[in-house]
C-alpha cells in the first residue's frame, strides 16, 4: 500500500451561511493534497470523511457541496459516513422517535432503525452520488468496501453511529447494535470509520464495540468530539490505531484542518495539517509504533484514564538521574515489596509479595509502613494493575481530603472527572465491573473515630475492594481492630517490609537493564548487578540506612555517578541533598550557583513550614522571591 495516500477529515458543517468559507477551505485542501501526492510519490489518494458533512441535514446544504465533491471525486476516491449533523431533525415526530430510541439496543429491529434514521435521507442520496465505490456488503447501519488499488487488497467499513443521535446529545447517549457491524477478515490493513468516538457510547455497548474493533481492524477513524482542543491519536492495542480527526470547520475548537496517513508495512505514518486562515500548515507527525510506546493500554471497560493522571501514576516521587538519560517511570524500576500479615500472632509470620494482595486476598486491606517504604508508589502500581485487569479503580489522597466530614459525593465526582476522560460519577457507579478504591495516607484525614467511620461507611457500600495506606506512627496502625478504631473487623492489616537481599538484587537488575551495555551483553548485566548489590549491602550493613526503594535508588544513582563513597557515612538528609544536587546538575546549573540556590531553597522550606502549607501559587512565590 506504499502508493496510496489516505486523507481523513470530519465536521465540514456546511450551512448556507458559511458556504464561501467552506469552499475556500476545501479548495486549499485540494491544493495541499496535490503537493503531498507529488512529494510523497503516491499514485492514489483516498479521502475518508468521518461525518457531519452538512450542518442540519437539509437538501439545500448538500446541493451547495455538490460541486466541491464532484471536483474531489474526479481527482481522488471518496468514502464517507454520516454524523449527527447529517440528520434533518425537523423531519421527526420527537415523541414517536424518542419511544423508538427507548427500545433496548438488544431488541431494536430494522423497522425501528429505519424510522429513527429517516431524517438522514438527504445524506444517503448525497453519499450514493459521490461515493467512489459500491459496497460489497452492507446492513442498514454498516457498509464494507473492498479496495484493490495496489498489490495488496484491504477493506474499509463504515458505520452509521449517528442513527440514534439527538438534537442535543451527550456522552453515553449513543448505542449501536453489535450484530450490525460488518467484520473484516482480520485486522491487517483494514479500516473502520464512524463519527462518534467510543467515549460517546453507552459504556457497556462501547466496550463490546471496542473489542470488535481490536479484533478486526488496524485503523479506526472517528469524527471530532466537539469538546477536545485538537487532533487526538491513540492506540487500543498493538494492532489497532484509534484516530480522532481534525474538523474542517468547527468553531468550538482551536484547530481546524485534516490529516493524512500512509501504511508502511506494519507501521502507520500520520501527518496533521491545520488551517491558518489562508491555507494549511503541516503540523505534528506520528508513527503508530511511537504512539504504542508512549501509551500502552490506559482503558478499562471503555473508561479511559486521563493522560495527566496517568503521568502522575508513573512518577517515582523523586527525579532520579539514570546513565541512559532516560526519564525513569514507575514501570521501569518498580519491585513489589514483601508484606507481613499483622493479624497473625507469630512474630516470624511468613512474608508474601504485595502483588498477591490484588488476587482474592481480602476485600478490605490496610498497608502500614514508614515514610520511606513506598506506600504511595504501591497504590499507584495497584491502580495500573487493576486497569490492566479490565476493572475500575479510583484513587483518593488523604492529604487532599484532609477532613472526614468532606462531602462524599463531591469527593468521588472530583476524583472521577480528574482520573477518567469524560466520565461522570453516575456512569462510574452504575457500570457493572468490580470497583476498587485506593486511599493513600489515611492518617492525614482529620476526625475522631466516629467521623472516620462515617466517612468510610458509604465507600464500603459502593466499592468491592478498599486498600488503605497508613503511617506506622498512626494510632490505628498495627493494633487489633477494636471499638476505638474506625476500621471494622473486615480489614486485614499488613506491614510493608524492607527489601531483603533478593529484592535488592531485583531492583538493581531493573536499574541496570536500562543501560545500553547491559541490554547488548548479558555478562555486563551480571557484572553490574553484582557490583551494585555488593556496594548497597555494604552500606546498609554498616550504616543502617533503611533498605527501602527511595534510598536504594539513590544509592544506585550515586554508584553510577561515582559518588557512592560520599553516601557511605551519610545521614538521611544527605540523600535528599544528593538528589537535589543531581537534579540541578542535569538542569545545567553550574556548581558556582549551587550555594545561592541552596540558600534560596532553605529560605523557601522555612516559608512553607512557617505558613503550614505544602504548595503555593506562582504569584505568592514571586512575592516571596
UniProtKB/TrEMBL annotation:
GO molecular function terms attached to this record: hydrolase activity
InterPro entries, per database record? Calcineurin-like_PHP, Metallo-depent_PP-like, Metallophosphoesterase_sf, P-loop_NTPase
Domain (Calcineurin-like phosphoesterase) spans 6-227
Q: For this UniProt entry, which segments traverse the membrane?
A: none
Give any Pfam family that matches: Metallophos
Q: Where does this protein have coiled-coil stretches?
A: none
Report the SUPFAM superfamilies cross-referenced here: Metallo-dependent phosphatases, P-loop containing nucleoside triphosphate hydrolases
- Descriptive protein name: Metallophosphoesterase
